[in-house]
Every structure is written in structure tokens, then in C-alpha cells.
């Protein structure tokens, strides 16, 4: 069975075509820098590798280019759309309605659309991905896998906010958590690697969007993102944690509208707001060349991560391992070094030689004397989505 997985992020689309249940990757690739200059399309099969720099103004254009490559007469891997039996979609926010993977129908789509306000950078491109896939692959079952599902185990003491009870009871305002597909995948891989079912792990997902999860015995018990995917860590364009008073000050004293404040905090803040760059590779290069704004931004980013490591180690009452994953977590030895520096109180000791290596495998980057394992676990959200989609179809 051919299952196409579409993972639409805020500025990218990752995709893979799987033959299931064999978990064989037929092709894979990525559309990068959507809505930014010098957009890029990557497409790889066993026989072909194609890269193209072009303008990709939105997710719809990106998805159509992916479909064209899949069915291209020279480099394509399918002859017709009917060869795709299912399309698995990452959907960021499932609200209070979805805790399981579901087959998409009009009612499901309507619910996803209702949640746009909770994940304005993600649910809209997720929804577009569904609609475009329906038009390109009309006979395929469309499946939704929700980022919030893994975090349904977070206890009430952690998911509730200290606001009047009616907002939880009537409006379902609570912590939901995100990047659950990634956190679930790397958690299971880490537990298998450690050979320790009873474990205390902190998973650190660092990409354009960033989050951390406290995981006890394989279950999520706390998470940095909350009601929407904007708080917690410093992200590519999102502010992360901020004093709520700043929002009221911007509106009441500086004259910003609510819409303008949302735009600032969602798309003009984070590493971009601090440096003028949203790509960490550019920020690290600028920092190396002496750019003080970029140097400070990296320090701030690492400082925020360290704060959450400390708080999560406290609620876990111990720590067996921390796990770095996703594009930045797996590839930025600079940020990993800044995070793990001066953490000997918690038993974290980074091996600089191991940290500097680039390998796409599960591996330790801690010293032999480190009391806590420091792991890099490459995430594979697409495989996790394919597996969950296949189980639903079975």
C-alpha cells in the first residue's frame, strides 16, 4: 500500500512516499523557505535526485510542485494519482476534539478550520494540504494525525491555567502541547536505546518551531507549548514566553491593534526579531563573524532551554537522558554546546568531539563519566504518520 505523508510546517513542507507495511521509502523530499526568497524544492528517489531554487509564495504552490514531481514522466515514481491509497497529514492543533488519528471527512475539516485561531501558522497550511491532496488524489483516503495527541497524558495540575474555571469548562482553554508526533517517535527510540522502560527523559525538538517535553515512563507529563504553539522556547519567528503585560502595553500605550500584536509575536519575533535572520545557519555564521545581535540571540536561546531542563528535571524527580532532535537539534553543535555548558550540577557532561560529528543515527554525545545521557535521535515524523495512518486503514 502506497501512503503519501505530507508534513506542512510554518515555512516548509516535508514529504515522503512509503510502501506500507514494509516501511519502505519510495521517495522523499522537502520544500523549504515558503514565502521567503530563494525557495527550494528537494526530491529524492533511489535513482534520481532533483533540487530546484524557485519562488514558492505559499503552501499550495509547493504541494502542487511535489505532486508534479511524483508523476513526472522522467523522475516520477507513480504513473497516476490512483496509485496513492492514502495521504497522511500532520495537523498541529486538535483542540479538545481529537486525541486519536482519524479519517478525514467534511466534519473533520470543519473542526480543523475552527482551530485556525489556535495555530495560525500551522493549521491553515495543514488544511490547505488536505484540500490540495483531495483534489490531486481524489480516490485516496485522507488521514489526520494530530500533534496534540501525544500530550493527552499531561496531568491536570500541569495542563490547567490559573484563570477562572469557566474558561476551562466552557471554552476549553488549557495546555494542549504540540510537536507530539516528533516527541512520541524520539521518545520510543530513546527508551529502546536506553533499554529502560521506567525512564525520565526530556525531549528537545528544535526547528523553526521549538518545544520540550518531560517524559516519564514513555508518557508526556509536561510540555513547553500550551494553548497555542507560541510560548515556551524562543523560535524562528515566534517569541516564546513573554510577560503578558507587554501585550496590554503594546495595545493600550503604543497603539497597536490586537491583529498587529499577534503579527509581531507570531511572525516578527524570536530569532528573526533579535537578529533579522530566521534561519539558524545564517545566525550561527553571522555570530562567528562577530555579529553581536546573533551572538546574544544564541545565548538567549540556549538560556531558555537550560531553564526548562532544570524545571523538568525537578518535576521528573531525576533525569536519565536529554534528547536533541529535529533540524536544529540534530545539526547545530553550536547550540547543543551552549545548552549543555555548565550543567554539571545535573550530571550533564558534553563530549565536544562527539558533538561536532554529523551522523544521521541515534548516538550519545556525552562523556563516559556523564551521569545523564545526552542523545541525538533523528526524528522521523513522516514514518510515525505513515504508521499511524496504516493502523487506521487496517
UniProtKB/TrEMBL annotation:
<comment type="subunit">
    <text>Homodimer.</text>
</comment>
<keyword id="KW-0067">ATP-binding</keyword>
<keyword id="KW-0418">Kinase</keyword>
<keyword id="KW-0963">Cytoplasm</keyword>
<feature type="binding site">
    <location>
        <position position="90"/>
    </location>
    <ligand>
        <name>substrate</name>
    </ligand>
</feature>
<feature type="binding site">
    <location>
        <begin position="205"/>
        <end position="209"/>
    </location>
    <ligand>
        <name>ATP</name>
    </ligand>
</feature>
<keyword id="KW-0479">Metal-binding</keyword>
<dbReference type="Pfam" id="PF00871">
    <property type="entry name" value="Acetate_kinase"/>
</dbReference>
<feature type="binding site">
    <location>
        <position position="7"/>
    </location>
    <ligand>
        <name>Mg(2+)</name>
    </ligand>
</feature>
<comment type="function">
    <text>Catalyzes the formation of acetyl phosphate from acetate and ATP. Can also catalyze the reverse reaction.</text>
</comment>
<feature type="site" description="Transition state stabilizer">
    <location>
        <position position="238"/>
    </location>
</feature>
<feature type="binding site">
    <location>
        <begin position="279"/>
        <end position="281"/>
    </location>
    <ligand>
        <name>ATP</name>
    </ligand>
</feature>
<feature type="site" description="Transition state stabilizer">
    <location>
        <position position="179"/>
    </location>
</feature>
<keyword id="KW-0808">Transferase</keyword>
<feature type="binding site">
    <location>
        <position position="14"/>
    </location>
    <ligand>
        <name>ATP</name>
    </ligand>
</feature>
<dbReference type="GO" id="GO:0016301">
    <property type="term" value="F:kinase activity"/>
</dbReference>
<dbReference type="InterPro" id="IPR004372">
    <property type="entry name" value="Ac/propionate_kinase"/>
</dbReference>
<comment type="similarity">
    <text>Belongs to the acetokinase family.</text>
</comment>
<dbReference type="InterPro" id="IPR023865">
    <property type="entry name" value="Aliphatic_acid_kinase_CS"/>
</dbReference>
<dbReference type="InterPro" id="IPR043129">
    <property type="entry name" value="ATPase_NBD"/>
</dbReference>
<keyword id="KW-0460">Magnesium</keyword>
<protein>
    <recommendedName>
        <fullName>Acetate kinase</fullName>
        <ecNumber>2.7.2.1</ecNumber>
    </recommendedName>
</protein>
<feature type="binding site">
    <location>
        <begin position="327"/>
        <end position="331"/>
    </location>
    <ligand>
        <name>ATP</name>
    </ligand>
</feature>
<feature type="binding site">
    <location>
        <position position="381"/>
    </location>
    <ligand>
        <name>Mg(2+)</name>
    </ligand>
</feature>
<keyword id="KW-0547">Nucleotide-binding</keyword>
<feature type="active site" description="Proton donor/acceptor">
    <location>
        <position position="147"/>
    </location>
</feature>
<dbReference type="InterPro" id="IPR000890">
    <property type="entry name" value="Aliphatic_acid_kin_short-chain"/>
</dbReference>
<comment type="pathway">
    <text>Metabolic intermediate biosynthesis; acetyl-CoA biosynthesis; acetyl-CoA from acetate: step 1/2.</text>
</comment>
Amino acid at each position: 500500500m502506497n501512503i503519501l505523508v505530507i508534513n506542512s510546517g510554518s515555512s516548509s513542507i516535508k514529504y515522503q512516499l512509503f510502501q506500507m507495511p514494509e516501511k519502505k521509502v519510495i521517495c522523499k523530499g522537502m520544500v523549504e523557505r515558503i514565502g521567503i526568497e530563494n525557495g527550494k524544492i528537494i526530491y529524492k528517489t533511489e535513482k534520481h535526485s532533483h533540487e530546484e531554487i524557485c519562488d514558492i509564495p505559499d503552501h499550495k504552490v509547493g504541494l502542487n510542485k511535489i505532486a508534479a514531481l511524483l508523476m513526472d514522466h522522467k523522475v516520477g515514481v507513480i504513473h497516476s494519482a490512483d496509485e496513492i491509497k492514502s495521504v497522511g497529514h500532520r495537523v498541529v492543533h486538535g483542540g479538545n476534539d481529537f486525541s486519536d488519528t482519524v479519517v478525514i471527512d467534511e466534519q473533520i475539516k470543519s473542526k480543523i478550520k475552527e482551530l485556525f485561531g489556535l495555530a495560525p501558522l500551522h493549521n491553515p497550511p495543514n488544511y490547505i494540504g488536505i484540500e490540495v491532496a483531495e483534489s490531486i488524489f481524489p480516490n485516496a483516503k485522507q488521514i489526520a494525525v494530530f500533534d496534540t495527541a501525544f500530550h493527552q497524558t499531561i496531568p491536570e495540575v500541569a495542563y490547567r491555567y490559573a484563570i477562572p474555571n469557566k474558561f476551562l469548562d466552557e471554552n476549553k482553554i488549557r495546555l494542549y502541547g504540540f510537536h507530539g508526533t516528533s516527541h512520541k517517535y524520539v521518545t520510543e527510540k530513546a527508551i529502546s536505546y536506553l533499554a529502560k522502560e521506567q525512564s525520565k527523559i526530556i525531549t528537545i525538538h528544535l526547528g523553526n518551531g521549538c518545544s520540550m517535553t518531560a517524559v516519564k515512563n514513555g508518557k508526556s507529563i509536561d510540555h513547553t507549548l500550551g494553548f497555542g504553539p507560541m510560548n515556551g522556547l524562543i523560535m524562528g519567528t515566534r517569541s516564546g514566553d513573554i510577560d503578558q503585560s507587554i501585550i496590554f502595553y503594546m495595545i493600550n500605550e503604543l497603539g497597536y491593534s490586537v491583529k498587529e500584536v499577534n503579527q509581531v509575536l507570531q511572525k516578527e519575533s524570536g530569532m528573526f526579531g533579535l537578529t533579522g535572520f530566521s534561519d539558524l545557519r545564517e545566525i550561527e555564521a553571522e555570530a562567528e563573524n562577530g555579529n553581536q545581535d546573533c551572538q546574544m540571540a544564541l545565548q538567549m536561546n540556549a538560556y531558555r532551554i537550560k531553564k526548562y531542563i532544570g524545571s523538568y528535571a525537578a518535576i521528573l524527580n531525576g533525569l536519565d537522558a536529554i534528547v536533541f532532535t529535529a533540524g536544529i537539534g540534530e545539526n547545530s553543535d553550536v547550540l547543543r554546546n551552549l545548552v549543555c555548558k555548565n550543567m554539571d550540577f545535573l550530571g550533564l557532561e558534553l563530549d565536544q568531539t562527539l558533538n561536532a560529528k554529523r551522523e544521521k543515527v541515534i548516538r550519545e554525545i556525552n562523556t563516559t563519566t556523564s551521569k545523564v545521557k545526552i542523545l541525538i535521535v533523528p526524528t522521523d515524523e513522516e514514518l510515525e504518520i505513515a504508521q499511524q495512518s496504516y493502523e487506521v486503514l487496517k
